[in-house]
User: Which sequence fits this backbone?
């Protein structure tokens, strides 16, 4: 049975304490699906990584910044978009390298994009210096993959 297309979006201040809210909001929304606990945890982790990047790197933890998240459920896939209007990424290819971080003084691991790539089926980054970054991630869920076989 094919589920209907469904979506949600939420915006919040670029404050580190809102990262937990973002995880819970997305997890609550996608829990309506026949999703495994592993898939749910992977998506929650990806939300944390993308939101933390927006807050720490996009806005330099300026609470006047706004992080936007939208989630779309479509035919057994989850599409997650995290956007900011922060400073953008100067070199996306470098930023996506494992262990690369622009904030070593904050003890950042530099694994955010690597985790996103490993937990999701696709990752697209659109950015413009001085204008912000949009991270678009998709994951095809196991129940949908099983229906195709």
Assistant:
């Amino acid at each position: 049975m094919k589920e209907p297309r469904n979506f949600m979006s939420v915006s919040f201040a670029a404050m580190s304490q809102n990262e937990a809210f973002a995880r819970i909001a997305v997890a609550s929304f996608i829990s309506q699906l026949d999703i495994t606990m592993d898939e749910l945890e992977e998506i929650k982790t990806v939300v944390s990584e993308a939101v933390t990047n927006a807050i720490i790197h996009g806005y330099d933890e300026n609470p006047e910044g706004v992080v936007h998240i939208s989630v779309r459920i479509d035919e057994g896939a989850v599409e997650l978009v995290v956007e900011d209007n922060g400073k953008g990424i100067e070199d996306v290819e470098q930023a996506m390298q494992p262990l690369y971080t622009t904030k070593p003084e904050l003890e950042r691991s530099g694994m955010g994009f690597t985790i996103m790539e490993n937990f999701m089926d696709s990752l697209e980054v659109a950015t413009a210096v001085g204008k912000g970054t949009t991270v678009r991630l998709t994951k095809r869920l196991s129940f949908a993959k099983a229906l195709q076989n």
